[in-house]
Structures are given as C-alpha cells and as structure tokens.
Write a structure and sequence with these properties.
The chain has about 900 residues and is of the alpha/beta class. The protein has five domains: about 180 residues, Formyl transferase, N-terminal domain (Rossmann fold, 3-Layer(aba) Sandwich), CATH 3.40.50; about 100 residues, Formyl transferase, C-terminal domain (Methionyl-tRNA Fmet Formyltransferase, Chain A, domain 2); about 80 residues, Non-ribosomal Peptide Synthetase Peptidyl Carrier Protein, Chain A (Orthogonal Bundle), CATH 1.10.1200.10; about 240 residues, Aldehyde Dehydrogenase, Chain A, domain 1; about 200 residues, Aldehyde Dehydrogenase, Chain A, domain 2 (3-Layer(aba) Sandwich), CATH 3.40.309. The protein has 28 helices and 40 strands. The protein has a seven-stranded mixed β-sheet with strand order 3-2-1-6-7-8-9. Strands 10, 11, 12, 13, 14, 15 and 16 form a seven-stranded antiparallel β-sheet that branches. Strands 32-33-34-31-30-36-37 form a seven-stranded mixed β-sheet, sandwiched between helices. α22 links the parallel β30 and β31. The longest helix has 25 residues. The protein is globular and about 100 Å long. It starts with 5 loop residues before the first helix and ends with a strand. The N terminus is likely disordered. This is 10-formyltetrahydrofolate dehydrogenase. One of its GO terms (biological process) is 10-formyltetrahydrofolate catabolic process. One of its GO terms (molecular function) is formyltetrahydrofolate dehydrogenase activity. It catalyses: (6R)-10-formyltetrahydrofolate + NADP(+) + H2O = (6S)-5,6,7,8-tetrahydrofolate + CO2 + NADPH + H(+).
Amino acid sequence: MMWTACQALRRLSTSSHYYQNKLKLAIIGQSLFGQEVYSNLRKQGHKVVGVFTVPDKDGKADPLAVAAEKDGTPVFKFPRWRVKGKPIPEVVEAYKAVGAELNVMPFCSQFIPMNIIDNPKHGSIIYHPSILPLHRGASAINWTLIHGDKKAGFTVFWADDGLDTGPILLQRECAVEPNDTVDALYNRFLFPEGIKAMVESVQLIADGKAPRIPQTEEGASYEGIQKKSNAKVNLAQPAEAIHNWIRGHDKVPGAWTVIDGQSVTLYGSSMLGGAVPAGQPLEIDGVSQPGLVTKNGLVLHGTDGKTLLVKNLQFEDGKMIPASKYFSSGESASVELTDDEKKMAEEIRNIWKGILSNVSAIEDTTDFFKSGAASMDVVRLVEEVKQKCAGVQLQNEDVYMSASFQDFIQMFVRKLRGEDQEEELVIDYATKEVNNMTLKMPYQCFINGKFEDAESGKSYDTINPTDGSVICKVSYASVGDVDRAVAAAKEAYDNGPWGRMNPRDRGSLLYKLADLMEEHQEELATIESIDSGAVYTLALKTHVGMSIQTFRYFAGWCDKIQGKTIPINQARPNRNLTFTKKEPLGVCAIVIPWNYPLMMLAWKSAACLAAGNTLVLKPAQVTPLTALKFAELSVKAGIPKGVINILPGSGGMVGQRLSDHPDIRKLGFTGSTPIGKQIMKSCALSNLKKVSLELGGKSPLIIFSDCDMDKAVRMGMSSVYFNKGENCIAAGRLFVEESIHDEFIGRVVEEIKKMKIGDPLDRSTDHGPQNHKAHLDKLLEYCDVGVKEGATLVYGGRQVDRPGYFMEPTVFTDVEDHMFIAKEESFGPVMVVSKFKNGDVDGVLQRANDTEYGLASGVFTHDINKAMYVSERLEAGTVFVNTYNKTDVASPFGGFKQSGFGKDLGEDALLEYLKTKAVTVEY
C-alpha cells in the first residue's frame, strides 16, 4: 500500500518557504509516509521533540524510527498505549515528558488514548485516506475502489477517539482512473500530496489559521477492515463490480476465488473493450460462463455480458504466475548458470540475507514473503539488485512472480541474458557489453509493428567512431521496403485505431512512450554514445533528456488542437456559421541527420504523432541504432502497428523514394542545404507534398567589448565545441571587438588545453570523436583550406593521435570575409574568429548578415539597447543574447533564407503537421 510509493517520493520535497511561527511536535505513526512527514516538518524548521512508533519487527526498525534515530531525535517504541481500554501510566508519563505542542499522526496504526490526543496545546491531527465523512475506517481507500467511486482523496482532521469523526482541517481530491489500484492511487496522489498536506496543516496551526469544520453525517459511511477471509469475489455480478472488487483488494489483502479446488488470488484487473481474444476455457467456482486463459491473461465474464482481464494469479503456496501461463505444462526449463552468474547469485543471496535478517540461512527454497518480507522489502530488494547489477531491468512485480530464492535467481539470469522479452514482439537483437550494461539493439527494418530484414536481404556495418570498430550489421532498406512501410502507415491512418482514437488517449500513449524512454535513458544514451560519438553525459542530458521532454510536451498538445469560429458576411435572409478545423495530414515522412540521432527524431516525430499522423522515418545511415530502439519502445508503449515505421539505409535510395512517393503528404527534413533543395524539388514534382526544411547554417556570434568576458569565453566555446561542433546552430563565425580580441583568443586557447579528449563513455571526457571518418576527413580538409587562404591557425587543426575519429578543437583568427571558412559551415569543432573595429555596430551587423544562411545567431553585451538593436537586425530564426545553445521544447526552432523554412518545437511545429479546413453552414 502506502509504503510501496517510496520511489516516487524520493523526487518529492515540500516547499521550503520560511515561516516565522514554529511548533514543538510529537510524531505518532510509522512507515515511509511517517518518515517523510517527519523529515519535511524538520526541514520547515519545526522542532520534533519526540517520535512514537512501533517496535522493531524481525530486528528491523520502522523507517520513521530509522530516520529519527539518525537525527538524534528521541524515539519511543511502545507496543501499545493502553491495556483493556485504559492508558498505561508509564507510557503516558514518557509521552508528556517531551512537551509537545501538537501531535502529528501521519500513519498511525495504534489506538492512542484521548488523554494523549488532547494533551498538547493544539491537540492532534491525523491523516485519513478518504474524503471524510465517506468511508470512515481503516480500509477506506479499499472501499473507495470497491464502490467504484469516481473521486478519491484524503483528509487531515482533528483526531478524536478513533472513529474518524473529528473536525476537518484540510481535504484534497483526485480523479479515480478506470484501472487504478490502491497502490496506484497512493503512488500518484495520496502519498506525495498527503505529505505536503500534513506539512501545510501543521503550518496553518502554527500560524493560527487552521479551520475546524465539523463533519456532517450526510453521506457518512463506515465499512469494516478488509481481511483475506472476507475478500472472496462474487463472480455472479456485472463485470465492473467484479473489476472494482479485485482492484480494491490489490495487493492487500487480495481478492480470491476457487479454481480446481484451491483458493487462487486475482491481481491486475482491467476492463476489456472490443472483442474477447481467443483462449482456453477455465472452470471457476460460482460462474455460469467459464473464464478464458488467453495470451494476455485470464478473461472473466460479468452477468452484463461485459468482460475484464486479470493479469496475475497467486496460489495458496504463495507462488504467483502470469494468468496467461495457467495451462503451461510444468515449470520452464532451469537455466544452467555460468561461473560469473553463480558469483552474482551468491551476491544476491547476501542481499536476501541482509533483508531477511531473521532467517538463519537463505536456501534455494527460501520464500521471500513467507520469511516475513513486506512491500517495502520488495522495493529494497529490487533497488539493491539493480545497484549491484547495473542495466538489469528489474520490477517490483518480478519479486512477487518469483518469490523463492531459486525462482528469483532463474528470473534474474533470464533478464540478465535478455531472455525476458515479451512474446508479442520478436526481436533479433545485436547485444553488446558496454558501459556496465548489456545493450540489446534491434538492427532490422521496423515495418508495420515488426522487425524484419530488408527485402533485398542486404545489410551494412554501423561503426563506433571511438575506435572504428563495427557495432553491428544493420538492414539496408530498399525501395520495396519504403513502399511496404508507406502502405502500412496509410492503412494505420485510414483504417487503424490511430485515426479513430480520442486525442486524449493518443496523448496518453505518447506520455507512456516518454516514460519508457526515461526508463531506458541510460541504455539509449549509451547507444547514442557508441553510434554517434556523443559524450555520454551530454547524451544523457540532451540527446535523450530533451527527447523525453519533447514527447511529453507534445503529448500534452494532443487534446488542445483547436480551430476557430470566423465571423463572415451573412447571406441574408439566411445566416451563416463558419468555423475551422485542424486536421492531420496523413502519412508523413521524416528524414533526420546524424548529429543528434534520437533528439532530431523526437523533435519531428513527436509533433507529427501528436497531430494524429502516421510516419515513416529514415534515420541517418551512420547512426540508425537509437531510432530502432525507439521503435521497440513504441510497441511497448502500445502505439498501434503501422503508426511508426523506421527504415535504415541510404538517403539516395530511401530518402529519394520518400520524396517521390505519392501517398506521403508531408516530408520533414533536417540536413544539408543542397540535399534540402533536391528534396523540395522531388516533393513538388511528385504530388506537391508539404515540406519543412531545417538546413545548413553559418551562425554569427558577435562579442562586444562591454560583455561579461568570463561568460563570453565560456559560452563562445560552447557555441562552437558543443557536441564536438556537430551542432546545426553552432556559431560558424565569431566577430570579436578589436579591443578584447587578443584577450578573448588567449583565454579560449587556455581553456581548450584543459579539455579532456577521449572515450565518450568516460564521465570526465569533454570532447568525443567526430561522427564518422568521412566527416573527419572533410574537417581536416576544411582546416587545410583555411591555412592556404591565409587565416591564422592558432590551435588544433589536426587529428588526435589515437584510434578513432578524434579531432583537436581548433581556432582560426585573421579570417577575412571572402575566405572559404568565413562563408561555409564546418559542422565541427572549428572556431572561426574575425575582428571588428571598436564601436562599429552597423558594420559588424552587415558582415554578420552577409551570408545565405540564417539559422541562429548571438550577441554578447551588457548594453541592453545595443542588444535589442542587434537582435532586431540579425537575420536569423533564433537570436541568443548573452547565452547560446539555449533551446527549449516550447520555443519554435527553424531558420531563414537557405537555412530552410518551417519550425520544430513549440506550437509552431504542431502546425507543420496539420491542415486547416474551413466549414461554412447556412441556416
């Protein structure tokens, strides 16, 4: 129940505002909830004079006691407060000695005498998980679900004699989702918001602002404590009532029925919509229609003809299995452990021993729960094993499903080997041990929800730029693969569930996809590092982190796409109503570059999908792996088949066919200007499909003498060397005012010498390898041209003497406007610096704008008037003032002139994937 929410809570902290009024508090309660209330009250400056909690269980102190003892707060562990209804004198005396002004009871399971409740100056407050007066009693939250309430919530009330009838201080409400369980409600709302509310309530009391609202008896109810003995489910009722009973008891105490003569507990219920899947009949006591064991779980029929799905079953011996495996013959074949796996098993045995301290020895048959483990211990086990074995995707549910030590080890080893993949999606992974994890990388084309080889059977090597080694072979898509993918996307748009889906449901799937990306962020960042050369820490924060943010941002837009009502001249004597609708375009193609493989995918596909389109995406040939991993996660998120299709391969073949295809209605491209022109031409000639292009850049950065020099040096270097210079908005040319030019260059070179060039997976690395060999060669040639034209090579310009495609950060000065390096983009770690005369604002502006590109620009100055003057006149889609590279998912991104047109990010990006329909009605 409540204590299983610990992971969510670790990210929670209440407001840290300072209040003048503080109280001396006694905390009476237990569990993680009590611990967090205690900790947050102390953070607010209140003095906790005593903690009163339960005795140690099996030698383990309650979390509240652990935290208080660590802080040196007096802790009392009374087994009881009264005997035969009367307070125990020595207990009362010990309590009164602490001198509390208020009792705070965040999760109190003991009966507290009224002379304790009323003793402090301000009395006592207690947390209750219901919207009082509804569901008074200890199982309130269970009954909220059992009764099918549409709202849940909690109450902080002034404690009475244990009947939950005291005056109300504060209440909070939340909606109950159709498949919420007790755990889900606690994790999402009751637990984190309850802690905040308890802290807020104490402060209201301290400030003399706390209300005492008498409870009404209208709508009051009281239901008894739910115990296993009375939790048997009545299957002769409507499906929703059965579902509510099961989820109201999940996980404690567990709703049960009788199957084949033994009690079986049902967990993980959800209502089924649509057709019932095929399955094997299962006779269950008390039902007129047998259940069905399907590949998704156990289907139960209500008396109203509706159905529900049960995910897991637990037998009398504590063994839990997926309901879909009920008829599986015997146990899965045991996995033979390698020597390394045996060593790992012994380390896990020690973890079990540390948790089950009351057990003398952990045998293969030792049952985790029969040995006294509780929900909190499940969380601890999962986290300790994950910490010991980085990269293993272990969930709390896995412990319930493998309760004995032997079963747990078998499950763990299968996960370690990557053998736990869901049956619905068959993936032939390329695996690699790197960065303390086992990478599992899809490498085939992803078409219509399946991974499959290219039609031609061809493949190619994708290379790790750190050392030039082959990561794996990747399918090389053909024109036929493009046609199949477009057909799948068109079918999904025209006839699949995606086109008919409620926008809010579409948003929920995109949120789930973002959650899965976050769950796999270390794996995605590692793949990005080995496939593109991105420094791991940058890949984690930006390549992957911003991708997650982008999907969450656009998921929120799904149900906010609106048209307008337009006033037009009326056609008298009749009248007119004209309104517009925003509609998806249909099948869209997306072609992305190699510098930010996952982030560029997210920038375009999130907006595309949020608008309701389907897509065919071609990743860059040299960096296909995160796109294919993304495809796998999209299936796990529940994105219907055909909505997303990924085709690795050549731009000349796949990209050209996408441009030419008559069934594609929009193409979004990020890449070079020459290729963008070819795409635009092909799109026009084929079917006049809509195009958005984010192309080359030669972004100017103007640094005036009145700048913050420290910041200008730091940001100036970032503007060039961020992501190894493989950055579309990189400052292609710096203009530095004459009076500070030499100092600026000197400080830049000094900082470059401190940069660590090396393995991108090393957390201390500043500068990784260039993306691929051809690009490195092009950069070296670019530097040779700069030297030959007369620019001064101050630093770098060479390949680093080590394996892989590493280039030294480079600085050129004395760059004149006519030179090649002054006009053309390097797309690498090459700083191109030109002086401008002191005070010549208009002159440097003219030079900065003397380019056919207009993607980004920047200015550094402390003069706000100068900053505004320059920013208004710079011809670029983005202007940074006293910063650089500051992009955000809500801010539109795109260029002017030959840097392209159309926007990524922000509402503007959504409009790129929508069409406007005007409807006029005469009445």
